[in-house]
Design goal:
Strand content: under 5%
Order of helices and strands: H
Structural class: mainly alpha
Number of helices: 1
Oligomer: single chain
Helix content: over 70%
Largest sheet: none
Keywords: Membrane, Transmembrane, Transmembrane helix
Number of domains: 1
Number of strands: 0
Length: about 30
């Protein structure tokens, strides 16, 4: 149970990191 929760938290954190990086790239390349 606890391990599953930690795994879920880690996966969601990784997902938000990927989405944040993608948004940062889009915002960075949009003005150019």
């Amino acid at each position: 149970m606890y391990r599953d929760l930690v795994f879920l938290l880690y996966v969601s954190f990784d997902l938000t990191k990927c989405i944040g990086l993608y948004l940062f790239k889009v915002i960075w390349y949009l003005p150019m």
